[in-house]
């Protein structure tokens, strides 16, 4: 059981990206002069930055074979020599956002 807890804990570890978004949200929440609309806009901007970073690692041509494409995503991320938690997060985000890597 402890083995599985360790695997799950690694999968949900916060990365610098998570902390950056969380800090932006906290700053907005603490500032009484920031409206809900501005807070939403700040979160949207952080999300857009994240997706642009992810897409900068990809190409625009789609892969016919989804399994082959996923393997290439992981290879491309491994080339970046990122922390394992960040690599895992970006890979899962790429899959969720259907980013095409070839």
How would you describe this structure to a colleague?
With 102 residues, this protein is mainly alpha-helical. The chain is 72% helix and 0% strand. It has helices at 2-11, 16-30, 36-56, 66-79, 84-96. Helix 4 (66-79) runs antiparallel to helix 5. 8% of the residues are buried. The model has no long low-confidence stretch (mean pLDDT 75).
What's the gist of this structure?
It contains five helices and no strands. With 102 residues, it is mainly alpha-helical.
Characteristic terms for this protein:
102 residues, mainly alpha, 72% helix, globular
Calculate Rg over CA atoms. 16 Å
Looking at the structure, what is the overall shape?
globular
Q: Please tally the helical runs, counting DSSP H or I stretches of 4 or more residues.
A: 5
Main sheet, how many strands, which sense, barrel? none
Q: How many beta-strand segments?
A: 0
- Structural category is mainly alpha
Topology:
Elements: H1 2-11, H2 16-30, H3 36-56, H4 66-79, H5 84-96
